Amino acid sequence: MEVIQHIEWNLLLALVAPVLSLVIGYGWWRKPALRQKIWIWLPLLVVWLCFLPNTCYLLTEWRHFLETITADPATVRAAAHDKDALLRFLAQATFYFCYSAAGLLTFSMAIWPIDRIFRPAIWQKLVFFLLCALGVYLGLIRRLNTWDVLYHPKTVLRESISAVSHPTLILLTAAFAGVIWFNYWIFEVFIDGLLIRLRRSRRMRRQPAPMA
Question: What is the DSSP string of 153-165?
């Protein structure tokens, strides 16, 4: 039961950023009169950014699966000889795969509408993905929560400075940033291609049929 509650809580946190991005995207494109009201957008964007690492954090949940294998090697050996044990092993692996996929999907869905609004330069994207990776580190290793930005800002700042002061942590953070950036790039190419095909299909339907 505790594991299920842990999973449900993580998934709930992962949904906050994509929901906020949809709200921001809808308001920006459907309500142009509100675009100049920075007092609306700035708080929403800050909250969105703070909750965003909760999406790609789900990628790190594989560690529980690996810990199970490491702690109980007999599970792997049993899976090689027992059909039921193999099915349980595959079911567990499939679960963690889907769990991680949910993290990647919510991460990309949370970014895409905001990306379409601001169209950031490459260096800005680099900083952005590094910040996301740093946020995952703060949650995974330093055990900080999203709301610590509000309740314990000095701790968050201190731990962030500490992280970027260690070359090994910088490399690991950069590597994770590269992984999530590559994942978003794939998502972006797929969605952009899909939208192009939809627009082309709509134009073709609007064209009058040729005279017989």
Answer: HHHHHHHHHHHTT
